[in-house]
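To assess whether the prediction recovers the assembly geometry, we first specified each molecular entity separately, as shown.
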Amino acid sequence: MRHRQTIAVLALIGWFVALYLGLHALGIGGELKCGTGGCDTVQTSRWAELLGVPVAFYGVAGYAAILAVALVGLQPVWLGRRGPTLLLAALATGGVLFSGWLTYLELFVINAICRWCVTSAVIMAAIWVVSLHALRTTHHAPPSTTPAPRTDP
Amino acid sequence: MKRFYVMLGVLTLALVAMLVYLLQTNPSAPRAATEAPTTVIDDGFKGYTLGSDSAPIEVVEYVDFECPVCASFAVVQLPTIQQQLIATGRVRWRYRDFPLAIHKYSFFAAHAAQCAGEQGKFFEMHDQLFSNHGWAQTGQNPTGLFRDLAKAAGVDLARYDACMNSGRYAARIEFSRQEGLQRNVNGTPTFYINGTEVHSARLPTSDDFKRWVDSVATRRK
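The predicted structure of the complete assembly is given in tokenized form:
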């Protein structure tokens, strides 16, 4: 349960970070608050869009999916099941690979670092670590309708 | 569990408040550097030049930093022209600002280049503005990006910020634009070779310039 709660909190924060970048991509809010970072360099590069959609919106969708799965997984009917844990791990793995690719582009292709993008990448990495930890440490009882046979004398 | 949902709700509210704050409190492009002043005085500046002062042929380019054709020319053709004609001492290339009214940030970009020029980095900034020309397509406020580009060009940002906020080169840029209007410049890039306007049905290439320069040099002999 703790794992899913932690993932839900992280995904909620990540969703807002991605939403901020997405709104900026739509021209809402003007200049990014980035200090002396290279947010605008990254956001105006050719890599700021993927298939015609601002990259930030992939983050918005990804975090929303993770948040939804985490919240559903916290419902009593799903709490003891392994499905949400597996799905969270799969989503987080996809997210961390995507974030890793974007971070690579920032460091070695665009040569500028967007602090908000790094924040998002760190959040996604944290979600991934927690989801893997959940896979390793959570032992779920298989759903069963018949009582286990007694073995004690 | 109930405590968790309360905490999640509080966190959501805090994040919404933060998002609203981030979206509302953003600095806009310094007004002084984005608009032409009402009175314009000639400060004697005739544009930054590339090449030898003693070069026999001068090309004047009226340029708009937001113009994609100017960017294409600067990135694709100019390096060859620099190599073949400017570095060899045959041509001196002079830049004059001609920010077009249809471009929202071209005056601002011209001012950014002038502020970099104040620190001896005009051409470095020119290259940055044209090599990273995505800003001209997004329509987004490029204030932060131009600071990044200025930094990449080796400009001292404290002095750059002071220059941009003061808008001290706005009159110079407007003077250059009015000079262009007087010379019948009606688009960018427009070129003059030793004072004669170049008429070309398409964007000139480095080969075109080599041919024209050869022709002018032959006539001068």
